[in-house]
Amino acid sequence: MTMTVVSTDTASRVLPRPAKPSHHPRSAIIDRPALQARLDEIGGRLGADRNAMRAAALEEFRTAMADGQAIVRAWFEVDGQGLKCVSHLGWLEDEVIRAIHHFVTSWMYPADNPSTAERIAIVAVGGYGRGTLAPGSDIDLLFLLPYKQTAWSESVIEAVLYLLWDLRQKVGHSTRTVNECLRQAMGDMTIRTALHEARFILGDASLFADFQKRFDKEIVSKTAREFVAAKLAERDSRLAKSGASRYVVEPNVKEGKGGLRDLNTLFWIAKYVYRVSEVSDLIQAGVFTQREARLFRRCEEFLWRVRCHLHYVAGRPEERLTFDYQRTIAQRLGYATHNGLSDVERFMKHYFLIAKDVGDLTAIVCAALEEKQAKPRAALNRFMGKLRRRSQPLEFGDFSIEFDRITVANFHVFETDPVNLIRLYWLADRHRLAIHPDAMRLVTLSLKRIDASVRENAEANRLFIEILTSRNAPETVLRLMNEAGVLGRFIPEFGRIVAMMQFNMYHHFTVDEHLIRCIGILSRIESGELVEDHPVASEILPTIFNRKVLYIALFIHDIAKGRPEDHSIAGAAVARKICPRFGLTGGEVDTVAWLIEHHLDMSNVAQGRDLSDRGTIEAFANTVQTLERLRMLLVLTVCDIRGVGPGVWNGWKGQLLRTLYWETEPVLSGGHSAIDRKQRVVIAQEELRRALVWSDPDFEAYAARHYQAYWLKVDLKHKIRHANLLRLCEVELRSLATEYQTESFTGVTELTVVAPDHPRLLSIIAGACVIAGANIVDAQIFTTTDGLAVDTISIRRAFDLDADEERRAARVTATIEKALRGEIRLGQIVAEKSQGPKSREKAFHVEPEVIIDNNLSNQFTVLEVAGLDRPGLLYDLTAALSRLNLNIGSAHIVTFGEKAVDAFYVTDLTGLKVTNTSRQAAIRRQLTEILQIQEPAARSSGRKATQEPAGA
To answer: How many other β-carbons are positioned within 10 Å of the β-carbon of residue 60?
Structure first.
């Protein structure tokens, strides 16, 4: 039976068709005979003046190269054929090199009677050797010599290279004899791979033929196993550096997982082992079926098409498909907004599906070839004939273990019992074994057998839930199921978000990859691997009554992304639809739905609200209602934020979440009712008195300097620091002082500023931080009874080493002091650094939003502003609040990629809330104007980019 990789998302794989391919002859790109005739005319006319001759010839080459590249680009802009484009560029390079060689050997260094030593073969190697050349890529040349380099060959090679360099060609080159090529190829796998792609351009053809014959006989035929192992190890190393997932939202088209290099590696291995030269040859060799060969070519064409557009748009050899290029390329490729997905999101979804196809080909073929090297089979076509070498039958007779991999007993196991399509992965997890390539390939052929009857099958759902909640390797097995297309078929709602990217700078992965990663993080927390990173989550997870509910809620919390309605509310509705078939009771379904509907709440409150404000805690507690929900929501939020991507989680966010949890837990259990506010103030003062060991008169005088809110909001550690700093100011008769403290665990550095209180204080500090390049993430502001402000400013940490971070913090605090003393023209410098969004942010549009709420706090009016982030935004906002005569009690600054969400707790100058409607309208108008300082191109770029902070 022939097994074939097929697409798992056929309905969404209709790519925009390029225009009808052009059929221009290649001679229209460059007419080498005519070029060489002009060179001969120049040589005959200026031969006596070598410099003038060379300069005139160089202009001819430059014109021919530029004209040819312009023609190729024009053709590509019309027909959009990626492989044609890179093939045409490779051919143009060949022709220019041939013309250069003709000029050099005819007019610069002619050899009238060349000896046998004066022979050269110019050979393209590496990527250029495949006859493909991206618009901005370099070329690799091998100058092949017979046995040694003569003065003539040295001069010719040097002249050819200098002309190429003068044409601004990036040339990697080597000069070797045949023996040197073989010796170096044997010892260096990179050289061996490059020579494996060698292609003759010009010169002595017999010399190149001798090299090819000996390279194949002396190296390729004897080192297949070594080459396969080295290429697979090299691939693993490359992916570890560029990102192990193929679903990163800014993928590297060349080096990333599922990119062109993966296709190259796949072909290198097959070509080396089966001694073929074209992809089509692998069909007869039994490596590919015809369908797989077509899939290979389809993936190659798409990736080359994207890479060519990327190089042309960037104007340089850019390989990373970043946000600022994605929309432009999506439009160039003809994508349009459809079914709730923007043009760029549809383009990137197709990109990730192509990357998935590359992964299918790579995983199946590379694994099979690896096995072939260990234990070769007698049959050439490993996909035909009877299955053999079965061993270790499993508890289910339809499966067995072969070479330490789970495989099928026959090719009818999924036809006989479609539930086996789930059971296969259950067995892989249960026995902690990989799945055999033959079994994986049969799965892709059998996906249509996962129909409504399988989805409603109690056994299938039981097996799936056991996979999801497994204590072994649920993340790995779920990813295998997803890449094979099983998850999307078994849970169609999940299939809708497969390969779906979110066009924003906050999320690092596609939605499906994010959900699977979240399960992996939850599994690691449960196993005790992440106790240091997540102490509270690790402590409370074993106390959660129903871990199954938590796993299911986490797995589907973003399942409604990409729909026009709020994905949290829509996700809760999806949960109510699909959870009953997972065997959940009505109460369990309600809990899953609640967790999904509120999965952003804890992150929003922790990062964007004043956690020392009693109103914040009470409102959050009213939403959560039970301790079990609170515990589940904390763990889910931790996994969600950490699953967004590298660098998103830090100890500061963990500290905020822990604080919110600790403050809310006693409210839900009635723990705060026994002690009133006055008693809590007294307790806090006594705690500080014991820690400071000051005299009673000194401490009483100090305690009188703080209002009640200070004693209730600030923890003991910060109270001690504030007391010592204020006492230092008193002893040294200073009214301005700063200090800093950094912690690697929290990922932030705290700056404490003591200064005379005035409305512009926070604005000046924010401006100074802009000048110093520091990003503020939180601000707590307190005023003493004698008119001093004690502000704690938290800035995002920039260095891993404490010593480096402390030096930076010293520079930041020095800048703040200069600004407060009036030694810096703050407005002018900040304005120079705040010229709109940074380049990557310009690709986005965030609708400005200003919310004024008097119900979130008992004492303050809460202003929540959201808009496109840019340097100086916080300075502009706080300066506006100062002009509006508002006092800022605390500020909570959160950035989610390109989106800034800042909350300010304010009062008017009399210390009261802002309740006047006309005053509120003026505040809203001025803050909205500040948020609208965006590039017009970003504002007109299409669908509104609204982001959710907690996760994907």
So the answer is: 17
Q: Judge whether 152 and 109 are in contact, CB under 8 Å.
A: yes
C-alpha angle 18/24/29, rounded to 5°? 110
pLDDT, residue 856, reads 84
How many alpha carbons fall within 13 Å on the CB side of residue 588? 17
> Between β-strands 199-203 and 121-125, what pairing exists: parallel, antiparallel or unpaired?
antiparallel
Distance of alpha carbon 114 from alpha carbon 768, whole angstroms: 73
Cα 32 from chain centre: 45
Joined tokens for residue 222: 């004897």
- Cα 775 to Cα 690, 738, 771, 823, 826: the distances in Å are 36, 17, 10, 22, 17
Distance between CA atoms of 70 and 78, rounded to whole angstroms? 12
Question: Please, is 140 exposed, middle or buried when counting C-beta atoms within 10 Å of its C-beta (0-12, 13-18, 19+)?
Answer: buried
Asked if 394 and 427 touch (Cβ cutoff 8 Å), the reply is: yes
3-state secondary structure of 655: helix
CA distance 21 to 435: 42
**CA–CA dist 773, 751 (Å, integer):** 14
CA 862 to chain centre: 34
Give which of 268, 269, 281, 296 is closest to 127, Cα–Cα.
268
Provide the 10 A C-beta neighbour count for residue 377.
14
Residues 6+ apart with CB under 8 A from 55: none
> What's the CA gap between 529 and 642, in Å, rounded?
14
Using DSSP, state whether 562 is helix, strand or coil.
coil
Tokens of 310: 């990327």
Would you state the pLDDT for residue 578?
95
Cα 571–Cα 602–Cα 931 angle in degrees, nearest 5: 90
pLDDT of residue 246: 67
Q: 261, 297, 283, 3: which is closest to 137 by C-alpha?
A: 261
pLDDT (tens digit per residue) in 364-406: 666 556 555 533 332 323 333 333 444 566 667 788 887 778 8
Lay out the sheet containing 434-435: strands in order across: 391-393, 399-402, 405-408, 434-435
**Strands 139-145, 171-177: pairing kind:** parallel
Q: Where are the alpha helices (DSSP H) in 172-280?
A: 178-187, 189-196, 205-218, 224-242, 260-274
Q: Residue type at 887?
A: N
User: Element (H or E) spanning 726, and its range?
Assistant: helix 716-731
How far is CA 917 from each of CA 517, 886, 914, 921, rounded to the nearest angstrom? 47, 15, 8, 6
Instruction: Give the C-alpha separation, 136 to 719, whole Å.
Output: 59
In the prediction, which pLDDT does 841 show? Answer: 55
Give me the residue label for tokens 């053809």: 205
Reduced DSSP (H G I as helix, E B as strand, rest coil) percent helix, strand, coil of the chain, to 5: 55, 10, 30
User: Strand 199-203 and strand 434-435: pairing?
Assistant: unpaired
Residues of the chain falling short of pLDDT 50:
1-15, 17-19, 21, 374-390, 672-674, 935-952
